[in-house]
Structure formats: structure tokens, C-alpha cells
Amino acid sequence: MEQGPHGIRGSGEDRIDIRIAADPIEFFVEEHMRQRVVCADIDRLATQEPADSDLARKILAHTRDELPLHMLDEEEDLFLLLRRRAHPEDELEKTLFRLDGDHEAGKALAESAAVVLEAVSAGKTHLTKAEAARLHAFADHERRHLIVENAIILPLARARLTETDRKTLALRIAARRGLCLIPDEPDA
Ligand SMILES: [Fe+2]
Ligand SMILES: [Fe+2]
Q: Where is each Hemerythrin-like domain found (predicted)?
């Protein structure tokens, strides 16, 4: 089996285990890039005529399966580690207060959008203005959220998390996805 740079290995599409092990903070960067693509897909779907059921299913899978895991990666691991390491001048609590609120609002908007996505997945081809607005509202919210995390949280994580923190983060992210991780071998 292929071995990662930190002796972490497992299986998964596009070698997700290797990417997590190599740099868990970069994994968040990549996830955010994927989320921006999904936001663009949502906006595209909202204006399509007829609406594409395959695209709706793809977005729905991301919204139902991947986004909740990503929020847990942040709430239960990344944010907690940052709380331990941040300096007072980082004013982290102010940012986390906003992001926690964002996550709650995002869950509600995701559910609202999911109802529309399910309808399109089931064959609905023409969206009402209200349905299109629900999709756009979800995408707009997610984009604003990503801007804050990319501008403040991820640079702070790079500056403050220790090597042990990063290994802990990698183990937790991978475990949440059912990946098998093997700790570093001690030096011979
Ligand atoms: Fe995020
Ligand atoms: Fe987030």
C-alpha cells in the first residue's frame, strides 16, 4: 500500500489520506476551493433552463455528505486547537463567534436549498424565482463564509499550530472519514 509522507496511509478517492497527512491545513484550503466550485455550480443550476438533474444530485451529495464533515473538522478540531494556541492580539474569539453563527445559518440555508435540489434530482426542470433565490442565498452565504476563513482562520492556523497539533488534526480529519492512519515510525 502507498505510504504517505508522515507514515500515514489508507484508502480513499484521490488519495485523500495522503493529502491530509502531508498538510492538514492545506487540506482545508483545497476543501474551500472545492466549495467555491460547488457555489458556482449552485448559481449555474439556479439559472438553468432546463435544470440539470445530474448536477443537482452532485450538489446534493456535497451538501448532505461532505459539508457536515467539513463543519465538524472545523468546530471539533481546527477551532479547538486554535483556541489553545491563539494569542490575545489575534482576537480569535470575535472571529469564531461569527463563524459559529455562520455555520448555524449555513445549515439552515443548506436544508432550504436541499429541498430544491431534491426536486430537481427527481425530475423538476423549471425553478420558480423563489426556488432559484433559495439556491443563490445558500451559495452567497457560503462564499462570504469562505472569505473569512481563508483570510483569517487558515493563516492563523499556519502561524500558531504546532507540529503535534497538525498531526492531531490530520489524524482526526482522516478518522472522521474512516481512513486508517499509522503514526510516524520512531527514528532508527
Ligand atoms: Fe471551512
Ligand atoms: Fe466553516
A: 23-157
